[in-house]
Amino acid sequence: MNKKNITKLLNRRQVLKYGLYGSIAAAAPALWTTGCAKFKPQKKPNVLLILLDTARADKFSSMGYKRNTSPNIDAFFAQGTIFQKAYSTACWTLPAHGSLFTGLYPIESGANSETLHLPQTHKTLAQAMTNAGYDTTAFICNSWVSAERGFARGFNEYNEMWRESQRIGTKTNAEEAAVTKTVQWLEKRKNIKNPFFLFMNLNGIHLPYRAKKPFLSQFLKNKYNNKEINRIASITAMWPYLAGKYKLSKKDFQIMNDLYDAEVVFTDYLVKQVFDQLTSMGILDDTLVILTSDHGENLGEHGRIDHNLSMHETTLHIPLMMRYPNRFKPATRDDDLVSILDIAPTILDICGVNKEMQNLNIEKTSLVSQNRDARVFIIASNEKPRAGIALMKQQYPQFDTKTIDYRLRTIRTKLHKLIWTVDKDMQLFDLKNDPRELKNLANSQPEIKNKLHKILVSWLKQTSSAAGTAYFKGQDEESLKLLRSLGYIK
């Protein structure tokens, strides 16, 4: 069978489920350009998965940011691969972690803004790694990723460091404690040969922005008075702002950006301590290290703060960096669309644990697979914000909660993004010419809008019907035709 026919057979069932296309045509020559090194079989690697909660990609200097916010992270992953177009499946913590742990979209995993927990329906990455003989441990700084909400399933040890912040009173201390205990945990393993899977959720970049003074001075020194700084540093969530309890000026947003950047620098400093521990133990090159985020943050863009109810690049574009010399070439960058969904399959593939979560079709979704398919589009969603609606009704009864009682669906290609507020309206952005998403083209370019909407609706129908089942097997000729007409596939 020739290459053209093989591609046709494979991708009819892959395009809609994962937005994947073109492995047969593109995989072999892409391996070196995307940073996949020639595989040298050896013992199972350790895995360190670090998630920097609320970290947006464009705030890292290695991602082109003008400020030197991430010198340690940048230097470390200069020895690996940086995925420049990595995206989350959701705009907030719980559903994004559900995707990270299961390799499934929120609509499939059941972890979303309406359920507010991760159901036991699906096997998790931690379960797979434990079953494969790994010692599995987590240090968690965000209460949305609690054992109570189903996220500890599969871990041998689950340390909820956010309880430390409740006891002491600041999230900064919880972050520092998490890093200290991680280093101690690693130190105790010096003579243990069994491989480990270690997950860290560090929440310092999340609101409120209160980095320690040495880091604050890097961006705030002599620019603002203490009253101005403290006013912004006291903001803990978007809901009072949404209710109109206070307004923010252009200067306020500048302060907010500076405070946020200081948090990135502080977190960069903390993460280096973990990297240094791996080095001192002599296990750095035997460890697959991955750094990512669950979602980004609005810092005044689109008139918003925080991240809830937002499907813009500021909230969905996340950092994704991987280092493991046995599989990733140094100083490489991958410019393909990739998803937080791809992390679990990649870990399982590199660790040789492929059989544990066969529903993920690891051969096609692992970022190091020779048969990896490039994504044509990224999908993200948000269900009705149950917790936010309840909070607004309780604390701001005058606020009309109907204005936030909606679902969001997004489809993003390399060129365009469609944001669909279900049963309300749509926004279309030309990402090539308008990367900041300032000009809504929904009315001026109805053909592109309608085609992307049809693809999205078809994807939702078929993915919903396949939720919880094996790899999607449906075929949709109309969606394939629409993708071709838009120039996304051949």
In summary, what is this structure?
With 490 residues, the chain is α/β, with parallel strands linked by helices. Helices cover 37% and strands 17% of the residues.
- N- and C-termini, Cα separation: 19 Å
- The total of beta strands comes to 17
> Roughly what fraction of the amino acids lie in strands?
15-25%
Helical segment tally? Answer: 19
Low-confidence stretches are: 1-13, 23-33, 466-475
Describe the structure.
The protein has 490 residues and is of the alpha/beta class. The chain has two domains: 44-376, Alkaline Phosphatase, subunit A (3-Layer(aba) Sandwich), CATH 3.40.720.10; 381-485, Arylsulfatase, C-terminal domain, CATH 3.30.1120.10. 37% of the residues lie in helices and 17% in strands. The chain is built from 19 helices and 17 strands. The chain has helices at residues 3-12, 15-18, 23-33, 71-77, 93-102, 106-109, 125-131, 162-168, 171-187, 213-220, 226-233, 239-242, 250-280, 313-316, 343-350, 362-365, 386-395, 446-465, 477-485, and strands at 20-21, 46-52, 81-87, 135-140, 157-160, 196-202, 287-292, 298-299, 305-306, 317-318, 320-323, 332-339, 374-375, 378-382, 408-412, 416-421, 425-430. The strands form four sheets. Strands 2, 3, 4, 5, 6, 7, 10, 11 and 12 form a nine-stranded mixed β-sheet that branches. Strands 14-15-16-17 form a four-stranded antiparallel β-sheet, with helices on one face. Strands 1-13 form a two-stranded antiparallel ribbon. A hairpin with a 3-residue loop joins strand 15 and strand 16 (416-421). Helix 10 crosses helix 13 (250-280). It is globular, with a radius of gyration of 22 Å. Mean pLDDT is 88; it is low at 1-13, 23-33 and 466-475.
